Amino acid sequence: MTADPMIRPGDGSGQPVTPSDDGGRPTGEAATAVIAVHDAAVVLGGHRVWHGVDVRVSAGEFVAVLGPNGVGKSTLLKAILGLQRLASGRISVLGAAPGRTRSSVGYLPQRRSFDSSVRMRGVDVIRLGIDGSRWGLPLPGRVARQRRQRIDELVELVDAGRYAHRLVGELSGGEQQRILIAQALAHRPRILLLDEPLDSLDLPNQAAIAGLVSRISRSQEVAVVMVAHDVNPILRYLDRVVYLGPGGSVVGPPDRVLSSDSLSALYGTPVEVLRTSDGRMVVVGQPDSPVPHDHQQGGD
User: Fold this and answer.
1) How far apart are CA 34 and CA 176, in angstroms?
2) Residue among 179, 53, 45 at smallest CA distance from 125
3) pLDDT (tens digit per residue) in 83-136
4) Is 273 in contact with 267 (CB distance < 8 Å)?
C-alpha cells in the first residue's frame, strides 16, 4: 500500500508530518540516491525561502519541482549545484558536497535563447559544452575525432540532425532548446537540472521536449530534476513531484501530491484539483494557481 505524501510544515506550527514512500521506486538505503536533500533550508535577505525539504532522486528518475511564484524553485536547483548555501540541513550530490561533482551534473538555466545576431551553428553551441573551457584552438588528431563523434552522438540523441548545422539564431524555440539540452549532456552527466525548459514554447514543442527529456532520462539512466511552470506537458512522465508552497513542502507521486487534500493542507485553505476531459490538471481555490502557474519574475 502506498503511503500519503510527506507534508513538511513550513510555518513552525508543529503540525503532524505524514509518512511518505517518495514515489514508485526504492529510495534511501534501498537505492543509491544520486541527489539526497535532507531537512534543507535556505534564507535570503533574512527571509526564509523554504525549509524542511527532504527528497532523494535516483538514477533514471524524472522529478518535477512545482510551486507558486517566488517560493524558491530555482533556488533549490542552485542549492543542488552548490551555488546557493543552505541555512541548515544538507545536500549530497553523487555522495559528495554540492559543487564537487559539477562535471557529472548538466544544467540548463532559465530563458537561454539566441537571436539572429548570433553567428554560431547548433553544432558550435554543442561543442562549447565539450571543450568550452579549453584554451586555444583544438588540435587535429584523436581528440578532435572523439569530439566530432561525441557531437554527432548528441545531435542524434536530441533528434536535431535536420538543423544542427544551421545558425542557431535562425532556429525555432523548440529547436534551440534541443541544442541546449545536447550541450548540457556533453560530458555524459548522471544528473540533469532543467529550469523551466518549456517556458515560451508552444504546446506541440512543450510536448515534444517533455517526451525527449523523459526518453533521455530512461535510456541514459540520467536523473532529471525539472522546474516547471505548467505540470501538464510532463505529468505523464513524472516519477515524483516536489511541491514547494507557503505552508511547507510535499514530496511524492504526482497523483498524491497534486491532490485536493494534499494542497489544501499545504496552503491552509481549501484547494480543488480538477481534471479536464483531455486529462489536463487545473488547480483552483488559491490566489496563485500552481497548475498551470501564473508566470512572473520573482525570487524563484
Assistant:
1) 28
2) 179
3) 999 999 999 999 999 999 888 999 999 977 788 888 999 999 999 999 865 545
4) no
Domain boundaries, the chain: 6-113+189-284
Q: How far is 75 from 299, CA to CA, in rounded Å? A: 8
Q: E strands, 29-99, where?
A: 33-44, 47-58, 62-66, 88-93
Helix locations, the chain, DSSP H? 73-81, 122-131, 142-157, 173-184, 203-220, 254-257, 260-267
Choice between 191 and 245, residue whose per-residue pLDDT is larger: 191
Q: Which of 223, 159, 163 is nearest to 194 (CA)?
A: 223
- CA–CA gap between residue 169 and residue 113 (Å, rounded): 8
Cα dihedral: 80, 235, 5, 105 (round 10)? -20
By mean pLDDT, which of 20-34, 117-131, 203-217 is the weakest? 20-34
Predicted local distance difference test score (pLDDT) of residue 132: 65
| Number of residues in the chain | 300
- In this prediction, residue 192 carries a pLDDT of 98
Closest C-alpha to 34, from 118, 103, 91, 117:
91
User: Which string of b and e fits 128-153 if b means at least 16 CB within 10 Å?
Assistant: ebbeeeeeeeeeeeeeeeebeebbee
Q: Does domain 6-113+189-284 have CATH number 3.40.50.300?
A: yes
Alpha carbon distance 266, 205 (integer Å): 32
| Average pLDDT in the chain | 83
